[in-house]
Structure formats: C-alpha cells, structure tokens
Amino acid sequence: MKPYEPFGTLSPGGHGWRIVVDELVVLTRIGLHAQEHLAPQPVAIDASLHYRGVPAEENAHELIDYEAWCAGVSDYLESKPHTRLLETLAVQIAELSFTRWPALDALTLLLYKPKIREGTRRVGVELDWHRADFDAWRASAALYTAARTTDTR
C-alpha cells in the first residue's frame, strides 16, 4: 500500500462509486428516416456507471475500467447493423454493460444525436437502470423468445 493511501479511505460507503463518461461520440447506424439509413451518423453518449467495489490495484476485477467501457461501447456501435430507435440502442448498450462488467450496480445513459434537428443542439433519450431492471428485462426477453419459438412450430 502506498503511504498516501491509508487503508479504508477509499471504501465507498453510501451508494458507492460512479464513473462518469461525458460525451463519448461514436459513428453508428441509427435512425428511422430514409436519409439516416445512408451512412453512419454521430451519436453522443453520457454515462453514469455505479459500482460498490473498493478502488485498489489488486481489486481491478471489482471495478469498472472506463477505458475498457468506452472502447467496448465504441467497438459495438461501429460494427452493429442499423438500429431504428435510440431507445433500442440504449437498451443494447445497457445489456452490453451489465453483461461485461459484473461489478456494475446501476447505470444512467443519455444518448443523443447532435444537431439532428434545426433549432436544437441535440435530441436524445435517457435510460436509468439498476441491475435488477436488467435482470427483469433479460428474463422477459427470454420468455418472449421462448414463446415465439413455440408459436412457430
């Protein structure tokens, strides 16, 4: 332990730690309108990623690595097929986040399209999920998939 990091001073207490990502801009295929299907367009993401781990180099598996999160989200968005709704994209990013980072307790995502409409600086959606919300969504998605598989037989 380094002399300037007394034991216990980084314990989260309260609601824990939060990683804040401010305006990660990634080109992706998104949109309802015909002109939005022609080429990737920028989507900006603000994220708040909550976790309760104790920050320490030996506990890296209990943390959220913001560089890995930004790279993982960017890679996903740059390579995925066209998505019509920002809401769907927000759920996909949440799914990726909760699946890849088990330490993640909660997240808030704000996705927006910069300058997509005249007279606005940005237009977007916000998703606020706890791990329990993700687990419930995943369970309902599995039930829906199972029901559709049964119906097609």
Question: What does this protein structure show overall?
Answer:
- With 153 residues, the protein is of the alpha+beta class.
- It has helices spanning 66-79, 86-100, 131-151; strands at 17-28, 41-51, 104-114, 122-130.
- A four-stranded antiparallel β-sheet has the order 1-2-3-4.
- β3 (104-114) and β4 (122-130) form a beta hairpin.
- It is globular, with a radius of gyration of 18 Å.
Low-confidence stretches: 1-7
The gyration radius over C-alpha positions equals: 18 Å
The main β sheet shows up as: 4 strands, antiparallel
Strand content: 25-35%
Distinct helical segment count: 3
Instruction: Tell me the helix content.
Output: 25-40%
What's the total number of strands?
4
Short description:
The protein is α+β, with helices and mostly antiparallel strands and 153 residues long. The protein has helices spanning 66-79, 86-100, 131-151, and strands at 17-28, 41-51, 104-114, 122-130. Helices cover 33% and strands 28% of the residues.
Question: How are the SSEs ordered, and which strands pair?
Answer:
Elements: E1 17-28, E2 41-51, H1 66-79, H2 86-100, E3 104-114, E4 122-130, H3 131-151
Antiparallel strand pairs: 1-2, 2-3, 3-4
